[in-house]
C-alpha cells in the first residue's frame, strides 16, 4: 500500500484525497427518540483555532471556502446501510494556512435526549481511501465509547511539509459546544 | 537453563471495563500460580504482559516466573482498540528481549504468544501492515482468543491459524481460558525444540477452536 505507517499510529498521508464515513442504525425501539449523529471538521491554523467561521464544516456549513472539505449533508436518523454521513477531504486544494484538520463525531442534543453512543446500534466512524477502498482506522462507537456523547476521532496535521493522520480516539461528554470552545 | 519467553497481549479497551477485566486479573493469578507448581516451568518460563487500548503499554517486561509480580491492570473509561500498535510493539520487544542462538551459546526457546481481545482492531491499516511481520517472528505458538459475542474471529484469523472463541466473556469462561493457557505453556515448555510445532492440549468446553 502507498501509506507508510509509523509508530504511534501516525500515517504519512501520501493520498491527496480520503473520505470519513459515519454510520449508525435507526432506533427501532419504541422507547427513546431518533438518534442523530453528526460528523464535523475544524480546519485549524498555526494557533490551533479555526481560520474563520467558514472553516468549521458541519451540518449547517457543508463546504470549506477552498473546497478541500465537503460534507455530504445531515442524516438525522441513520437510515440506510453503510456510511450515513461522509466528509470528503482533498488535501491538494487546501488553503496553505491550514495546518491541522480535526475530525469530531457528536450526538445531536445528547443531553436533552439522554443518549450516549452505547445506546446507538452499529455506530461507527472510519477513514478510508475511497479509490482503493482501504480502511485506515475504524472505531465502533457503541463498543469503544459507550458512555460518551462526543469523540475526537482523529486529526490530519502538517509537519515537515507532509500531511499525517493521527488517530486520536478521545471521548468526552460535552458535545459539539465543548469542541467549539476549544477550537473557535 | 534456556528461557521460554511467553508474551501475553491483553485487550484493555473500554469494553473490557468491569467484570471482564477483573476476570482477566484473576485468570492471570491462576496462570502464574499453576505455572509455579510446575518445576520445569518455574525454571525456564519468562513472562511479559503488553496491554492495548488507545495506548499500548508493556506493563511487564520479560521477567522470570520465579521473581514475577503481576502488575496492576487498568482500563480507560472508553477508547479504541489499537491492536495493530500492540503487535508492532511486540515485534520490537521480541527483537530486544529474546536472545537468538549463536556460535557460542544457545538462545532462548521460540517464544509463545497469547493475544486476547473482546472486539476487533481499530487501527485497521496498522493491523494489516504488521500481520506479516508477526508471522515472520518464528514464534513457537501464536494463539488468538476472541472473547465474547462482539469479538470478531476473522481479523484474528488473518493473524494466526490458532483462533479460539469464548462464547461469553464472563468470569468462569475467562478462568477456563487462562487455565488452558497455563497448560499450553507447560506443554510448550516440555516439548520446545523437539518438534517443529508445539501441540497444544485440547481446550476446555467453553473455549471453541475456530476452524
What would your notes on this structure say?
Helices cover 9% and strands 40% of the residues of chain A. By secondary structure, chain A is mostly beta strands. The model of chain A is unreliable at 1-8 (pLDDT under 50). Chain A has a single domain (3-183), classed as Lipoxygenase-1, CATH 2.60.60.30. Helix content of chain B is 37%, strand content 21%. Chain B contains six helices and seven strands, in the order βααββαβαβαβαβ. Chain A binds chain B through residues 1, 3, 5, 7-9, 11, 134-140, 143-148, 167, 169-171, and chain B through 13-15, 54, 77-82, 84-85, 88, 119-120, 122-126, 129, 150.
Keywords:
heterodimer, A: 184 residues, mainly beta, Lipoxygenase-1, 7-stranded antiparallel sheet, 3 helices, 12 strands, globular, disordered N terminus, B: 211 residues, alpha/beta, Rossmann fold, 7-stranded mixed sheet, 7 strands, 37% helix
CATH domain fold name of chain A: Lipoxygenase-1
Find the count of extended strands of chain B (DSSP E, 2+ residues): 7
CATH top level label of chain B: Alpha Beta
How many separate domains of chain B?
1
How far the N terminus sits from the C terminus of chain A, by CA atoms, comes to 36 Å
Fraction of residues in H or I helices of chain A? under 10%
- Number of helical stretches of at least 4 residues of chain B: 6
Q: From the coordinates shown, what is the CATH architecture of chain B?
A: 3-Layer(aba) Sandwich
The radius of gyration over CA of chain A amounts to 16 Å
The CATH architecture name of chain A reads Sandwich
Helix content of chain B: 25-40%
Instruction: Tell how many strands the DSSP assignment of chain A holds.
Output: 12
Helix-strand sequence of chain A: EEEEEEEEHEEHEEH
Per the CATH scheme, the topology name of chain B is Rossmann fold
Termini separation of chain B (Å)?
36 Å
What is the gyration radius of chain B calculated from CA atoms? Answer: 16 Å
How is the biggest beta sheet of chain B arranged?
Answer: 7 strands, mixed
Domain module tally of chain A: 1
**What's the total helix number of chain A?**
3
Q: Biggest sheet of chain B, strands in spatial order? A: 3-2-1-4-5-6-7
Domain VWFA (chain B): 5-181
Protein name (chain B): VWA domain-containing protein
InterPro entries (chain B): Tellurite-R_TerY, VWF_A, vWFA_dom_sf
Pfam families (chain B): VWA
